[in-house]
């Protein structure tokens, strides 16, 4: 974690020294979230959890057609499980909200009325809220419905507080600043607070934005 934070600092300092015009942008869209290494009993029932993201960022040119983009992002993640048949008929949804600090390296390729862009970079996230909601009979449990708040600290926490990984992004930036973008969030840190298998975020995203 220390190495990751030091890398963040080095990238930001490099970008700050660039003699170029910084621009700013805002992106928002849809997240489709899942978890890696889900237990065999649940993996067959795991579906994409639909949520949202909002990201503010700075675009700092450091070379022709190449920029560093630090930002702050509110990310909705989690997963959904649906069962039917012998195991009952029901669903469980886990929604987690996280604040992330990404630092992406982005390359622009002139094309038509704008630029295609491709990028990647690390992120550190902090899980700030979460809720589990279930309805019906699931996994042999008697039919019921309800919800509960998730905990990210203490001996009985449901998930680790800190998430870290790598972002991949691509899209098209029009000359007027309008953005069409997609991305993939590859979590590398273990979210599981127990002794079970390591579990990490896997999030596919689609959205639009504007760069000023």
Outline the structure in words.
Residues 1-20 form the signal peptide. Keywords: Signal. It is a single chain. The chain is elongated. The model is unreliable at 15-19 (pLDDT under 50). The protein has 212 residues and is mainly beta. The protein has helices spanning 2-16, 40-43; strands spanning 23-35, 46-47, 49-63, 66-83, 90-111, 114-136, 144-149, 162-174, 178-187, 201-211. The protein has a single domain (2-211), classed as Porin, CATH 2.40.160.20. The protein contains two helices and ten strands. It has an eight-stranded antiparallel barrel. The chain starts with a helix and ends with a strand.
Question: Summary?
Answer:
It comes from Sphingobacterium zhuxiongii. By secondary structure, the chain is mainly β.
CATH architecture descriptor: Beta Barrel
CATH topology: Porin
Mean pLDDT: 88
Radius of gyration, Cα only, in angstroms? 19 Å
**CATH class, anyone?**
Mainly Beta
Report the principal-axis shape. Answer: elongated
List the total number of helices.
2
Tell me the fraction of residues in β-strands, as a range: over 45%
Give the neighbour order of strands across the main sheet. 1-3-4-5-6-8-9-10
Overall SS class: mainly beta
Q: Which stretches are poorly predicted, pLDDT < 50 over at least 5 residues?
A: 15-19
Estimate percent helicity. under 10%
Q: Count structural domains.
A: 1
Beta strand count: 10
- Along the chain, the helix and strand elements come as HEHEEEEEEEEE
Query: How many angstroms separate the termini?
Result: 33 Å
**Biggest sheet details:** 8 strands, antiparallel, barrel
